[in-house]
Amino acid sequence: MDRFPKAANVDFHSPLDLSKAAAAVLDDEGRISGWGSSAQRLLGHAPEDVLGQSAARLLAANPGQRLSALCRAHRPRSTVLDLCCRDGRTLRTAVTFSPLAHRGAAATIVVAADLETLRSWEAQLALLQGMATESQVGLTIFDTGMRVVWANVATDLELAGIAQYIGRPAADLFPEGEFISRHHPPDEDQIMEHVLTTGEPIMGMHYRGRAPADPVREHVWSCSYHRLVDARGEPLGLYEESLDITDRYRAQERLSLLVRAGKRLGASLDVRRTAAELADVAVPQLADEVLVDLPPAVIEGRQPPTGSAPGHSLLRMHGRTPEEFRTSPVSYPPSSPQALSLSTSRPVVDAAPSEAPGEAGPAASHSSLFVPLLTRDAVLGLATFRRSSNPDPFGPEEQTLAVELAERAAVGIDNARRYTSQHAAALVLQRSLLPQHLPELSAVDVAYRYLPADSRVGVGGDWFDVIPLSGARVGLTVGDVVGHGVHAAATMGRLRATVRTLALLDLDPAELLTRLDDLVAQYSESEADDGLRDEALGVTCLYAIYDPVSGRCVWASAGHPPPIVADANGSVALSALAPGPPLGLGGLPYENVELSMSSGSLVALFTDGVVEDRRTDIDSGIDRLAHVLTWQRCPVEELCDRALSSLPPGPQADDATLLLVRTRRLGADRVVDLELPPDPAMVAEARTLTERQLTAWGMPELSFTAALVVSELVTNGMRYATGPVLLRLIRDRCLLCEVSDNAHTAPHLRRARRDDEGGRGLFLVAQMSQRWGTRYTASGKTIWAELASP
Fold first, then answer.
1. Can you give the pTM of this predicted structure?
2. Distance CA 533, CA 195 (A)
């Protein structure tokens, strides 16, 4: 189907053309001597009705004198006449009288056309003339060989004269230009060939280049191509319409630039990346180079310096990745435009910029725009927009755009600065809440690694602890608070302190987790009322107790991954522990799992960040960690390094905490057990055994103190127990004295009055030992005391 079905009705022939106009011949007396068929079509009169008659009869008014004057004229005359049609209508016509002399006979040829039709044709002609001479739309005609044939004045001005291009190919007009629209072939020859071959016009192609009349500036045109055909429909060539849309295109680019800036600036919460993002967004649409200068305090996440002293030292940002990042000092004299921008907090344009002291790089830019990076509180720094290839200075609209970009960048930089400050504070808080130094214990050899999550994720809530317990035992714990940030770190610190407090009560792992679960539920309820939903609702924890005397290890889990155990031969096995629910949920009990360990066994306690990754499943991570434990003979410090080095490369999505424990057994030469029947006379035997054993251990200086403590503890057990009493002496880093019985009543320390006969035993024990306490067992209780080695 023809795209323009009414195109055939467009006719650019003049209505007064002899092939179309009504024609008649008048003699010298004004009588009609010739009457053409075109005259009959216009007025309706047949030749036999008008031939020989006076032409004045056809005039609608004032017929005589005016017609005679027109017929006697010696040169062509044109006028407007109202003519009578045969059907009685009056038709206003444009009439031209042309005198004709032949062989002495005088005659006048009259050509007439409908005045309205003539006016319409004249309007079309004026349109064509305007397009050729006054239109801002460039028109260029090419022949079928795609060579220049004709161009209007607009094209002539852009090309600095069209005559030099007549007969030359289209590619010669803008040899360095290019199409930036991608919905058609980007080659002009292919586009023109397509239009010539198919007749399908191509419109709205954006073309970028430099016009010969303005070679230093880059322009953008909207171009359309149409085929030209003759009356028979054969191609004559094609013509190109081009309109300079540089200003509109740049306005659209500025709008799209602001959209991109809104998506990118400040998304990273990193000062360095935000500065690089400003350069990425603004180059090359607004400037050829963007420089960002910031005070050291802002880069480090601290509060920016108050005031905006022009001579204040700044650091110029270089590099767009952490590996490339570096800074170089730069300062501006008070008289420099940079200092003026900083002091007035307004943009300053420098058409002939010079390099400031301390700046690096060439000063070959045509124009520079200095824009301060402002927040509500302070001036964060300075952004410099430079142009080197574009000779135009920054106009008002471009200055407004640069200010808008600088404002968005300043918000992003300030948010990144605040985030850096808060992240650093949270990291300091978290690390201050974690153990700074692990205790030296005979029961275990311990090493740990804590790898914080990537800074973009935030500080997490992992924790671990190694807790010395009575009887040379050791408590081991790891936990993980769901979430990130200061609140997670604070929750972690609170839970770690609670676990340590409960552990020192000598609770078994399942009982400890049950009490911790109740406390976490209370925390969550109280903070939910304040609108601070506690991350502890998702906290997991594992707690274990290792006894180096028996070699028993007991643990329980609240939603935490079970430990991995490797025996002294390097054989690795996963624990059969079935984790209970995470803390704070309640409802289900926690169960203990007991395992007998040989000396030199390895136990790996870890958080999910060690074994879980977005790219791999948790089973693969556990297998990876288990493989590391097969290197059983390596020092635990080296094993920790091997475990973390096996993590997948890239940023950590969560904190990774690993606690490696190599167990030791206390030999029989360091532990003495004596079961005493419930007879008060056995107190003396216990005291004698103690003195003899300390002499054998080379600790005779402790004999008196230890004998007194043992006698008081055994006496207390004999008094309240109904069965035998067990005395245990352990030579560790200190002397441990333990007395176990089947009574469940707890002894209480009290101050005896002067007239009391008893009540001073535990007081003496407390005064002579560095620590003492009571722990409960399935069969009763154990009272213990630690005496410092001399």
1. 0.60
2. 67
Residue with tokens 């600790």: 699
The answer to whether 149 and 168 have CB atoms below 8 angstroms apart is: no
**Three-state secondary structure along 433-487?**
HCCCCCCCCCCEEEEEEEECCCCCCCCCEEEEEEEECHHHCEEEEEEEECCCCHH
Nearest CA among 488, 622, 503 for reference residue 561: 622
The residue among 514 and 216 whose pLDDT is bigger is: 514
Cα-only R_g, the chain = 51
Strands 235-244 and 138-143, sheet pairing: antiparallel
Q: What angle do CA 119, 125, 131 make, to 5 degrees?
A: 140
Residue 55, classified by CB atoms within 10 Å of its CB into exposed (0-12), middle (13-18) or buried (19+), is buried
- Give the angle 633-637-639 at the CA atoms, nearest 5°: 55
DSSP state of 319: -
d(CA 296, CA 381): 10
What are the beta bridge partners of residue 595? Answer: 553
Identify which of 270, 286, 382 has the alpha carbon closest to the alpha carbon of residue 320.
Answer: 270
Please spell the DSSP secondary structure of 554-597, one letter per residue.
Answer: EEEEEBPPPPEEE-TT--EEE-----BPPTT--SS----EEEE-
**Average pLDDT, whole number, for the chain?**
83
- What is the mean predicted confidence (pLDDT) over 523-549? 72
**pLDDT per residue over 296-324, tens digit each?**
888 888 888 765 444 467 889 887 666 67
The packing angle between helices 246-264 and 271-282, to 10°, is 160
Which residues are paired to 712 by β-bridges?
Answer: none
Q: In this structure, are residues 710 and 693 in contact, taking their beta carbons and an 8 Å threshold?
A: no
The two three-digit tokens of residue 227, written as one number: 């085929």
Q: How far apart are CA 717 and CA 785, in angstroms?
A: 14
Instruction: Give ∠ CA 35-36-40 in degrees, rounded to 5.
Output: 90
- What is the average per-residue pLDDT within 431-439? 77
Q: What are the two backbone dihedrals, phi and then psi, of residue 703, each rounded to the nearest 5 degrees?
A: -60, -50
Torsion angle, alpha carbons of 550, 556, 562, 564, to 10: -10
Amino acid identity, position 625: L
Token pair belonging to 307 = 């005031």
Quote the tokens at residue 464.
Answer: 């671990």
Asked if the model's pLDDT at residue 604 lies above 70, the reply is yes
Return d(Cα 404, Cα 286) in angstroms, integer: 12
What are the percentages of helix, strand and coil residues in the chain, rounded to 5?
A: 35, 30, 35
Name the amino acid, one letter, at 343. S
pLDDT at 59 over 60: yes
- The 10 Å Cβ neighbour count of residue 47 is 14
The mean pLDDT of 36-65, rounded to a whole number, is: 84
Q: Which two tokens stand for residue 255?
A: 């709008």
Ranges 48-52, 65-69, 187-191, 237-241: which has the least confidence: 65-69
Structure tokens at 137: 């739309």
CA angle (307, 308, 311) in 5-degree steps: 125
Residues 436 and 411 sit within 8 Å (Cβ to Cβ): no
Q: Dump the DSSP string for 87-156.
A: TS-EEEEEEEEEEEEETTEEEEEEEEEEHHHHHHHHHHHHHHHHHHHT-SSEEEEEETTSBEEEE-HHHH
d(CA 515, CA 502) in angstroms, rounded, equals 8
Helix (H/G/I), strand (E/B), else coil: 83:
strand
List the 138-143 sheet strands across, edge first. 148-151, 138-143, 235-244, 214-229, 202-211, 178-179
